[in-house]
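Technical note accompanying the year-one report. For the benefit of new consortium partners, we illustrate the data format agreed upon in the data management plan: each record pairs a sequence with a structure-token string. No post-processing was applied to the example shown here.
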Amino acid sequence: MEHSAAVPVYSRAMDYCHQHNLVDPSKAGAERNWGIRVTLPPGDTLRKVLGDDWEKLHWYPTEAERDAAFERMAIRHGYYRKTDTPTQVLEKIVR
């Protein structure tokens, strides 16, 4: 059976596809030279799941934005239980 309904064709190129929602679309193409590397300390039990070489990089277009994000990431947020101790290691980096 032949299907006759037209399938829409999009000819406009996308600047990005499925960008994480931490990226403001108006800044998606901006050069990002200031970053934060997130790793786990040696002996952390989560390394058994993620691997010893796991890291997450967050990049920002300005040093000020990176520093503000670093301060927010370093705060012990309210989702932790009182007995939890976050073990992530945060490091400011530059390309």
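Partners are asked to follow this layout when depositing records. The radius of gyration is 20 Å.
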